Every structure is written in structure tokens, then in C-alpha cells.
Design the sequence.
């Protein structure tokens, strides 16, 4: 009986891993910009293609940063009603957004700003995370596929070119091109308590 249950667990785990790897990926970069005692955390697009909805939780340490406001709403139709900032005193901001253009979704060019959060941080920026508690991370595209989120913390947008670009000769059309990241030192160690950040997988 123990062997049977172990076999079932292994099969389910394998299926879960396969389904996660098979999901299309949406990639974001979180870039802190220090302005005096304020930190402007820019959420930038990487591979942001035909997205129709997103939700999740932005989380940070209250020992390091205090939320003050949202300085930029970069997605079509996005405004303050897409955010629950009442839980900011707990180190969380909840986001829930969707587009009315469910047929095409929204595609953002590399390094476009989706959101800018502003924090008070006397000692510089700390780690901003995207987590599934209390609001679960969930992204969908116009094909109704669930997207796998990956994100990094960077000192600047790392994409020289990635994902899709708008075709300047044919409005409304996109063409794919090769991803190529700029090589630069991992200076974010100064920002996140001496630890280099790796891509998060959900």
C-alpha cells in the first residue's frame, strides 16, 4: 500500500512539473530607482504578450520600506481601483487587472513600465517580491492559457531585445525576435542584503 501511494505521488508530481514547464511564460523585471529617501520601484515588461488578466500580491519588508503611493499605471484601463493598498501596513499590495479586449489582450514592448510603486526607504531599497499570499498569482492570455510568471530584480532593464516588437510598417502586427540580455555586474547585491536575486518560478 505504501508503494502504491508513493507511485501515485510521483506520477502527480511529474504531471505537475510537466504542466508548469509547458505553460507560456510572462516575464517581469522589478527595477528600484532611488530618489532621495524615496524608492520608485518600476515593474517592467519583458515577455508580456497578449495578456488579458493578472492578479497577485506584491510583498516587502516593513523593516526596510514603507509604501506611500502608486506613481504610474502603465496598463490600459489600469487605475487605483485595481489595487488594494489597505493591506500595505502588512507589507502587501494586492493587484487585480483585466482588459476589455479579451480577443487580443495587451502586448507591451520590452522595458515598458506596467506600474511604479513609491516607498519611503531611508536606507535604500530592499527586496520587492511577487507572491501568492494572500492573493494568488494568476496570469492569462487571449488564448485563455494560464501563464507562468518569472521575475527578476535588476538595477536597470536588462533587455536589449526580447519577445515581440510592433511592426512599424503594419500597425497592429507584431513580429518575434531574439532575446538578448546585456551583460552587466550583479550590483543588486547592494540592494537586497547581500544576496543575488534569481528568477522566481511559479
Sequence:
Amino acid at each position: 500500500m505504501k508503494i502504491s501511494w508513493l507511485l501515485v505521488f510521483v506520477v502527480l508530481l511529474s504531471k505537475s512539473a510537466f504542466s508548469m514547464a509547458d505553460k507560456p511564460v510572462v516575464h517581469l523585471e522589478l527595477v528600484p530607482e532611488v530618489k532621495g529617501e524615496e524608492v520608485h520601484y518600476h515593474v517592467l515588461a519583458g515577455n508580456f504578450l497578449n495578456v488579458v488578466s493578472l492578479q497577485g500580491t506584491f510583498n516587502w519588508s516593513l523593516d526596510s520600506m514603507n509604501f506611500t503611493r502608486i506613481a504610474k499605471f502603465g496598463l490600459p484601463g489600469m487605475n487605483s481601483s485595481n489595487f488594494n493598498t489597505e493591506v500595505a501596513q502588512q507589507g502587501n499590495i494586492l493587484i487585480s487587472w483585466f482588459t476589455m479586449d479579451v480577443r487580443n489582450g495587451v502586448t507591451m514592448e520590452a522595458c515598458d513600465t506596467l506600474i511604479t510603486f513609491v516607498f519611503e526607504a531611508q536606507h535604500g531599497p530592499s527586496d520587492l517580491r511577487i507572491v501568492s499570499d494572500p492573493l494568488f498569482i494568476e496570469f492569462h492570455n487571449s488564448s485563455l492559457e494560464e501563464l507562468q510568471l518569472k521575475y527578476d530584480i535588476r538595477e536597470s532593464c536588462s533587455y536589449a531585445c526580447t519577445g515581440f516588437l510592433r511592426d512599424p510598417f503594419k500597425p497592429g502586427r507584431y513580429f518575434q525576435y531574439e532575446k538578448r540580455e546585456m551583460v552587466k555586474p550583479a550590483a543588486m547585491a547592494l540592494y537586497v542584503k547581500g544576496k543575488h536575486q534569481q528568477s522566481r518560478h511559479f
